[in-house]
Amino acid sequence: MRIAKSQYDHGYHFSRGEEGKISDTGTFDFLVSENADGVPFQLIFGQQIGEGIYLNTGAGVRQLLGISPEDFTEKTFHDMIEEIVPLSDDIPADLLISRRKFINGEIKNYRAEILVKLPGGGKKWILDTSVPMIDDKTGMITGAMGILYDDTTRKHILEKLIEVRNKADDNESLKAAFLHNISHEIRTPLNAIVGFSTLLDEYPDSPEKRREYLDIISRSSDHLMEIVDDIVEISKIEAKTVRISREKVNINNLLSTVYDQYRFLASEKRVVFNYVIIPGGSDPCIYTDSYKVTQILKNLVSNALKFTSEGRVEFGYNVKEKYIEFHVSDTGIGIPTEQQANIFTRFYQGDSTSKRNYGGTGLGLAISKAYIELLGGDILFTSRQGEGSVFRFTVPDERVGE
Ligand code: ADP
Q: At which of 194, 215, 236 does a domain end?
């Protein structure tokens, strides 16, 4: 830290109560700390705003504003100003009004962020902090003295913080929506389980009714388990405790397992449903995490079926350089362009109509994306509202026996 002492003896002193040192003679001795970013200045006001002169401006003004201390006038400075953001409620953004208040003694400590256009191009945020200078003879405020700081870094950090806070707020509202949604999602199968279990007792002599109810209970239990599994899984992903366990996986078998799990649902919905394997008897086996790849495919296929009421759902894979690329396509409702950026965000579920009509937790794609990244692959999709969607994801082609 360097201590700068004013050479300027003009019969001024600081407004009382402010930082600084009033000399015995009432002259203008002051202590201003000039750190790496701070440039001390004294401004003697002119008749009009912009006609003032700067005295004893620190040499650092050259680095700060690209102007030599000699060329630094109030006019030069004002011509550079693009925006003023006062840092206190009693300071007006308008220069004329704030100057009037400053001279009246209403502003004891001027603090504002000022965006300036630099002579060499580019812009910079400056922090201007100044206090009034009082003429000993007249007792009038006739100038200001203070320090100009480079505020770009601070401003940048602040903006980043605001961005992070806004994201956190978004997350909070997503979480709140999720909790609301999840309690509904859990309650629906739970109510079915409780309700139909009670009804079972009422039909001791009707095997058909009992079978029907048992079927509903069993499906509701499965659904409830899926929801709970998703919540546990996303918590593990967030806690970064998910591990990959590689084993030999036969891709055609994996596709066939997924197909078997969904073909009844597809036929109930009357949607054409099929999977395609590479023709020519190719039967690749790779080392990967069988459970996770199956889960990803199941998430994508179940979404495809959920959001498709007519047409077809198809899935399969291709061998691409060092990757196996899986794909799931549908002719369903598609994803509106404005929602596309958000669909991998956890808890996100399109609009409220979509939530009501299709259920779900908004976790499937977030979990899938996290799994794919852990496996070393990538996920992409194309979609058109009203026409359908195609999701593609890759996993490294670590071939067994090659
Ligand atoms: P969930 O399906 O439980 O709502 P996901 O994370 O799987 O959650 O999907 C998030 C959102 O992305 C869905 O709510 C839906 O709006 C959209 N979406 C995902 N897949 C499809 C699809 N195949 N067709 C249309 N919209 C989809």
A: 236
